[in-house]
């Protein structure tokens, strides 16, 4: 028996680090194959990250977008979950070191996803807020609500405005969706809660370095979402770069915005781990992998999803860091493991782009499906359906649908609870 | 303007400390009266404490049993909420000191409820766990789940057993309900999650100093609940007193039980605040109040609910510390405020006992309604109906009902999420 109490059997052991979209799909598809599967994760649940912004804005609770890993794999033979953080790979010995001890592997799959990238902006890293996991989203929710409690106590107009101003950096789907949700709170929810505050003093700024919102999407989607955001009262600043943040003012290359809260949704990097020198050749913490997701020259070490960069003709810098890529790579790698077990040839990975979408506010979205581009209410219905179906588990689907239906008819179904006060703390580690 | 930014008007100001069952009822009933009402609470939500044990055992999420205070009082005129902790009363000056500054009052209502009472047992206070508010319930949930994660790593049988043993002290409704919920987890949920653990090694002990479970209830209820608990596999130790706990073993006057987790549900005391010398005459941190809930000789300082002890012929030591007493005292005090405003005579408070009940496991309960005493499934239906109806808000009722219906048909709808790791921390302050 090893430190992690995993039985040593005749089966080859695949160790998967991370139960995100990629790791989850891989482990599921390995269910009936002749491998022992060991899944490690820092959390005991899988997180549906696309809806984190709804947790941050009190529209959904954590249990709606999280699902216990042990329950997902209930009854799966030769499967072991351990609540653990990977620390270092010792490739020559085939050993992974974790915070609960070392573990020997036959195959190692790094599916650690991505982490917030501040691009060297120290002030932003210290005073800005990331939103990459549930504790961070809940922390952000507490801060937003505490800001208004503080504003209600403030005698100074400038203090009050600063507390009521929110700057979101990065107009990708996360930034756009968060800005829309905050705008709905401003218009329909908060004025009832804080009758003594004047909500004309509240501003939501969305800053983007590129020349349009939703840069990876079509021009149609980009223009539509800008229109929706503007209608909701969000102030959009494209072609604008953040230079610094001191917790009070956001300094950009164009203007300075007073704001107690800066939410950083402008960049991620691969969450690579120690011990593999081949990492980072693509930059941004991603492992350079071949078409079988093998890392560098290692035959038995793989990386999938955000932490992997596979050069393909359409994607010379690696695939976009999206849930869909991770899921398809996880599923594909499972097939290759099956092929290897049967001494067959593995297949090259090929990404099938299923389209992208983003929601803006309560009942609008923009959708790019190949050449089909649409938005508005129809887009929102598609967005809602796709996200609902992607959630793990019947109860989560039921609870989220109930929440969304209730919210559609009344804005005021949001539960604005400060369960734990805001803490300036790094929840990623 | 004062430090709390409450406007000074011609209306008399009533300051209510605490939005529990008593404070909530009082403030609601004051809605149309000619007073300014200022509500202070350490949390921004009202907690439905009777269901805390379901949050601790992952059956419900916080948003199901909590409700934002600002939303409860949405639109109520002359009402102000402040997220604040009361620190000290300066009665001669009619000033309440809080962590956000001092506030002048015309009337002060102390509705601070109760806090865990360890009766001087230092080891228990240091190593045992209370369950009086949502952060504590969530912390307990994390610990329970982390214990099993640790047990799965343990090579030693004795370590494993200790991690899988749970000692609950106090067989009042909270202790009984918690023991029942843990027993259901043991039988129906955890063995699926931890196939490598042997659940015959898991024990749930319920310790009670009195000679029966549910001491305040009828003998019928007591015997029935003992039967249900035994059927669920809970080991009940009546007539047994806890002497010490060191985090590893629970020492009682009869035997020693190895357990990493001791949950203390054996006692509470009034959460009195500094500055009033008349407090504590009844012992246990409760303010001695007259039949109008006035504290000592103060005409304009009141205490209601758990923190108040009003001597009545049937209750020489004060009323029981129950939600119903607090609610009735809150409603009654609102009526008396109306009388005072109209220069009428106030009425004496008289408690109407609506009965007591406790649930044991998934579908059984015991109910005492005057001379009517019943249990089993019928009792559970009554318990469920009464608790559902007592929840604040339509969405909470809907979500809790959905959860309970799903749980009735499948035990496995519980979301066993460790959102924040267990911390040894006092969440009451």
Verbal overview:
Chain A folds into two domains: 12-116 and 268-341, FAD/NAD(P)-binding domain; 122-266, FAD/NAD(P)-binding domain. Chain A has 429 residues and is α/β, with parallel strands linked by helices. In chain A, helix 1 (21-29) packs parallel to helix 10 (323-341) and helix 6 runs antiparallel to helix 7 (157-164). In chain A, the strands form eight sheets. Chain A has a five-stranded parallel beta sheet with strand order 5-2-1-9-20, with no helix packed on it. The first copy, chain A, is globular. The first copy, chain A, has twelve helices and 24 strands. At the A-B interface, strand 4, strand 5, helix 6 and helix 12 of A face strand 4, strand 5, helix 6 and helix 12 of B.
Please summarize what this structure is.
The structure is a homodimer of 429-residue chains. In chain A, 33% of the residues lie in helices and 22% in strands. With 429 residues, chain A is α/β, with parallel strands linked by helices.
Please describe the structure with a list of short key phrases separated by commas or semicolons.
FAD/NAD(P)-binding domain, 12 helices, four-stranded parallel beta sheet, 429 residues, 22% strand, homodimer
Q: What is the total domain count of chain A?
A: 2
Shape of chain A: globular
- Proportion of residues in extended strands of chain A: 15-25%
> In CATH's first tier, which class of the largest domain in chain A applies?
Alpha Beta
For the sheet with most strands of chain A, the description reads: 5 strands, parallel
Instruction: Give me the CATH architecture of the largest domain in chain A, please.
Output: 3-Layer(bba) Sandwich
Please mark out the parts of chain A with pLDDT under 50 across 5 or more consecutive residues, or reply none.
none
């Amino acid at each position: 028996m090893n430190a992690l109490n995993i039985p040593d059997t005749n089966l080859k052991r695949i160790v998967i680090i991370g139960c995100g979209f990629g790791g989850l799909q891989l482990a599921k598809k390995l269910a009936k194959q002749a491998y022992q599967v060991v899944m490690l994760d820092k959390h005991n649940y899988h997180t549906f990250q696309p809806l984190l912004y709804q947790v941050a804005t009190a529209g959904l609770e954590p249990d709606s977008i999280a699902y216990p890993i042990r329950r997902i794999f209930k009854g799966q033979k030769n499967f072991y979950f351990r609540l653990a953080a990977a620390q270092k790979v010792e490739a020559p010995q085939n050993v992974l070191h974790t915070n609960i001890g070392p573990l020997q592997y036959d195959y190692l799959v790094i599916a650690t996803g991505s982490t917030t990238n501040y691009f060297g902006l120290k002030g932003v890293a210290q005073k800005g807020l990331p939103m990459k996991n549930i504790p961070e989203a809940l922390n952000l929710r507490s801060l937003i609500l505490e800001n208004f409690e503080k504003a209600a106590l403030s005698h100074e107009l400038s203090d009050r405005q600063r507390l009521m101003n929110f700057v979101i950096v990065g107009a990708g789907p996360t930034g756009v969706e968060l800005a829309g949700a905050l705008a709905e709170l401003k218009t329909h929810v908060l004025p009832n809660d804080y009758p003594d505050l004047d909500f004309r003093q509240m501003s939501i700024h969305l800053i983007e370095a590129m020349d349009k919102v939703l840069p990876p999407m079509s021009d149609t989607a980009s223009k539509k979402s800008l229109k929706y955001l503007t209608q909701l009262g969000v102030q959009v600043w494209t072609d604008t770069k953040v230079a610094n943040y001191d917790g009070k003012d956001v300094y950009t290359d164009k203007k300075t915005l007073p704001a107690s809260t800066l939410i950083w949704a402008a960049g991620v990097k691969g969450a690579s781990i120690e011990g593999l020198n081949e990492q980072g050749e693509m930059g941004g913490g991603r492992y350079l992998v071949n078409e079988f997701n093998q890392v560098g020259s290692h035959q038995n070490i793989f990386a999938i999803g955000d932490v992997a960069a596979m050069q393909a003709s359409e994607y010379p810098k690696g695939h976009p860091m999206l849930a869909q890529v991770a899921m398809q790579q996880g599923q594909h790698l499972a097939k290759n493991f099956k092929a290897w077990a049967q001494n067959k040839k593995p297949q090259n990975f090929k990404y099938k782009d299923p389209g992208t979408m983003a929601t803006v506010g309560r009942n609008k979205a923009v959708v790019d499906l190949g050449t089909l581009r649409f938005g508005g209410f129809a887009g929102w219905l598609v967005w809602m359906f796709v996200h609902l179906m992607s959630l793990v588990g019947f109860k989560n689907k039921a609870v989220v649908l109930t929440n969304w239906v209730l919210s559609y008819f009344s804005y005021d179904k949001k539960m604005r609870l400060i369960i734990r006060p805001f803490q300036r703390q790094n929840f990623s580690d």
